[in-house]
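How it folds
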Amino acid sequence: MGSSPKSVIVVGGSLAGLMHALTLLSLPSPPKVRILERSPTALLHDQGAGVVAGSETQQFFAEYVRPGREVAVISPIRHYLNRKGEIMPETVNHWSQCMTSWDLLYHLLRWRVDGQQSEHVKGLVADDRPRAQYDNGCTVTAIDSVEDGVKVQWTHMDHGEQSATADLVLAADGASSSIRRLLAPTVERKYAGYVAWRGTVPETELSGAARKVFVERFTFYHAPGIQILGYLIPGPGGTLDAGRRLFNWVWYCNYPEGSPELNELMTGTDDRRHAVTLPVGTMKEAVWAKQKAYATESLPSQFAEAVNRTRQPFVQAITDVISPQNEFMDGKVLLVGDALAGFRPHTAASTGQAAFDALMLGKLLKGEVSKDEYNRTVKDFAKTVQAHGVALGEKSQFGRHPFNG
């Protein structure tokens, strides 16, 4: 990469992009940072997704975000239910894990990166780090190496064709990365044969029986072709107050590629066949009614209750993608986070990967690791965790299960 960059374009304004932007803005001599986000809205829409805050995420927030508030609900116990809804004693593990929400992490990062205000940061103290320029509604169309850096071209939703040149470009635009598609078109994102249904329920709306197994517990249920899990996450505005938190559940179900059932599921009320995510508010009533009935038939009563009490479900198709290389144009373009490798959610590591990559970039730019060490380390992390996620998913959805209940 040579000397520290004076200007950086970050393509993608979600967690990975914001983490990398904040890493750059925290340098002793920070570059000018511009974020190009494809979404047309000023704030990315929160799907209500829970996030397991692993060690990398915790380290990044402690070192770079320094939020001045707690960001996670602690779940000190991990256990499985059988089909009757009974806790399986042999599965009880007193292993504390930190559970947070995409929404809280996003708003804390936006606050630090570009000064965005929200209920999540009310009363927190800002610092004197410079701010990034955050542009939404930008669809990247071309990227080229030029004499003075990398030229990025994009179409803006209001202002048409635009371009800018930077010393460094970070592709943080997710598993369907437009930058990766331009530079490595043979790397494909492929459907894995199943989807994740997701939703949240206010903890106070759960019955006593459900709260007994869910509150401050990481709870699982396995059966052939099914895995469902759930845990508490922060509530509205990022609150951690007991009684105001949300129960977040994730339910994996198999749908063969090209099947009528998958096409029906992923076609929303907008009549669009969505490839990866069926957004909140677009699920057809008949599809949701069928799934709620299936929950009652196939899940422990506590999980069935949570599914049936969910008001805004959404669906994500599970996919696999990994790039064999993370850098292009002599290191002037880097793939980071999901753009480098999209993990299956079983690993609970996608946010951790974004944090890990951002921490490594900080070490690289501060001279603590070499460029070769940076490249090798981020690629090894991506390859190892991506393969682990595939193994977990294939066993869970298509193989034998350790706890059939």
Notes: The first helix runs from residue 15 to 25. Residues 73-98+191-319 form a domain with the D-Amino Acid Oxidase; Chain A, domain 2 fold (CATH 3.30.9.60). The longest strand covers residues 190-202.
